Amino acid sequence: MGEVVNLRQARKQKARIEKERLAGENRALHGRSKAERERDRLSSDRAEKFMDGHRREKLGDPDGR
């Protein structure tokens, strides 16, 4: 026969685990130094400019000239 499980305690334990997982994600996302955030911002800006420069049609130009 299986083990008896208290559903209330199981739900609370699941909620604690989920809360800890979310906290870990937030620490990874927001727990960075100013230099790290700036580096990531510059990297994403550089990638966006690269992609914009290699578009076949410019944005806002309907006939592509």
TrEMBL record:
Protein name from the UniProt record: DUF4169 family protein
Superkingdom as given in the UniProt entry: Bacteria
InterPro entries the UniProt entry points to: DUF4169
Organism: Mesorhizobium dulcispinae
Comp. bias regions, Basic and acidic residues: 15-65
Annotated region described as Disordered, given as residue ranges: 1-65
